[in-house]
Amino acid sequence: MLLDAPLAIVDLETTGAHPAWDRITEIAVLEAAAGEITSEWSTLVNPGTPIPPAIQALTGITDDMVARAPRFSELARALHERLAGRVFVAHNARFDYGFLRHEFERAGLSFTAKTLCTVKLSRRLYPEHARHNLDSVIRRHGIACRARHRALGDAEAVWQFLRLAAADHGDEVLAVAARQAAKSATLPAHIDRAAVDAIPEAPGVYLVYGEGGAPLYVGKSVAMRSRVLSHFADGMRSPREMQLAREARRIDWQRTAGELGALLREARLVKELAPALNRRMKRPDELCGFVLDAGKLALRRLDDADADALGCLRGLWRTRRSALEALRGLADENGLCLQALGFERTGKGACFRHQIRRCAGVCAGKESAAAHHARLAAALARLKAIAWPHRGPIGIVENDRGREETEIHVVDRWCYLGSARSDAELGELLESGRRPRFDYDQYRILSRHLAKGNARTIELAA
Predict the structure, then answer these.
(1) Record: fold of 2-183
(2) Fewer CB atoms < 10 Å away: N or C end of the chain?
(3) pLDDT 10s digits, 13-57
């Protein structure tokens, strides 16, 4: 039974809501077993940063009060031992558990525990009530709280709620509700549970919007509903997911036939919407590769070349800096002269790299330009080419097993044109006359998928 298990009822006060830069100012832990409190512990914590005035007004904890309190690192090991082996119980456990995991990690300790959120428990046991924050729970059950918004007072209120819930429903019902609550995600206050339940457990992309319809995040999964719920699960470590839970107001979704369609659509939507919390695939590309033309090596940016010019490129990098770093490595391996290639300032006589024995000496007359060029051509040939291996556009066929439908992803010269579910949609994509634009993220998705060798493709007439 729940109240017989070893519990740690925990409450924190903090300088704010974000564990990445906010810090703990007070901790309370009530240890319970066999239905009784066996230990009571609380302490102020020096956060090492000023407490905002609004937080001081709410909690009554001031900078002066924490000035001589221990830092978290000083009490981390003893607290870690105190919590070990106990079920972590808190009102809005995601907040307290997430903060503690961050603080333990900064102190060099790994912390995991089974958690029970009494907000979830209250929703399951008292579904007739609309509000389940701690103030509402205290008023509803007539709980005496000696110090609201102080860690020990709030922890005691949570313990009283557990005792009252056991008295109302019995130990067995409480235990079952606790097990169910431990498995469910706590949705943000503005997200309708029914809307999340309507998301299919199928491949696709989901879009999370914030206040005023601003796009926050675009994600993809082969099981969308489970992936969406995982963002709001207890014990989240990512500051990004904490922010997502705070700011989410609406979740939309788009089903795809399979994983490839979800990957391609995610890459496109991230570029189009520029959601605030997507880092990958959002930054503007500065794609470039090397071209060897009439004996001259040049670094060509992809915005200077359309899809037709991809076949001329050797290698492909996101930035000019990374391309030049790769060229230096290639030069070191093959004794090439960056000065002769035009990628270092031309000086008189031998280049510096020749003096440290990294250049074979074309700049010093120790080898012919023809020999240097031949070695350059051989080295470039080992870089990956981006040539399109088909005569024209192709369709990559993906079947939606759940709905017995087929989706065809249209690709031309590594450029993703779109997906079609009918002949009419397919014809529209092919006849749109839209100039293919190369996207590096889509190229990587497509090349990896086709490299597996089991993709079903069809040749399409332009």
Answers:
(1) Nucleotidyltransferase; domain 5 (3.30.420)
(2) C
(3) 999 987 767 899 999 999 999 889 999 999 999 999 999 999 999
